[in-house]
Amino acid sequence: MRVAILAFPRFQLLDVAGPADVFAEASQQLGDRRAYHVQVIATGEGMLKSSGGLRLGVDSTVATHRGAIDTLLVAGSPRVEDMAADTQLQDWLRRQARTVRRYGSVCSGAFVLAATGLLDGKRVATHWKLAGRLASDYPLATVESDAIYVRDGQLFTSAGVTAGMDLALAMVEEDHGRDLALSVARQLVMFLKRPGGQSQFSAHLAAQTSERSSMREVQDHVLANLKDDLSVPALALRAGMSERNFARIFRDETGTTPAEFVENARIDAARRMAEESDLPAKRLADAVGYANVDGFRRAFGRRLGVSLVEYRRRFAS
If you write DSSP's letter for every residue of 192-206 in order, what string do you get? Predict the structure, then answer.
């Protein structure tokens, strides 16, 4: 089947190369080089220069391309705003969306699709840094700001760079099953074939973003002591602040509330344990500080977008 990746000047190289390698590896493992035939389409002839300076030859342009497309992806670029204003490009994308089996975007490529109206009434994802602007500029789309990728019908959208590989793996799984998708992920040494609803950030990464040492110390304490009392009063006392001031500064520094950070840290730890062990839900809940297993199950589903049972079925070692 033909996979077309639409790329623009200063495109993010991994937005194109990442999905392309996933599809190529799937074809290799299937023993059929035509299983996925990837082509790069541009808005003009010649070589495309990526944001990192490397150049890529294109197979065709939106004006010269001929033949049916099965899967169409729009790559991200710092210049997507220029591309989003191209009415001829918008018309081409709308025509393709009526005939392709599925279409979508990687990272900021969502802005190009949004300008066509193809995201109206849809759930979508993009890079976390751009999610607020996408939601503000295109209020008819429902932006899931922290998702790795989102599928809504025939529309697939993903967060930045490596998340495009997760999106491509989801497509491979849809076409050929879970076993092939996991085999491709292993061959490409991807950490995990992540569920789309999984957060773009781990709690450990989020803890590195705070500028105040007192907030980092609180976050480090949370990560190291998940079974402790991690309520706002307890954390505020540790930081030497009033509860109100602590909650305000924590949110300003991290972009999340203390309760959300604690929940994310606990579920992040539980997720890793679920991948590596067969501990029952009650013991997992206890290990990460949940007194109530039902509350733990709800939090797990809310944070990862899948139940513990489904997560283990798909992603456990």
Answer: ----TTSBSS-HHHH
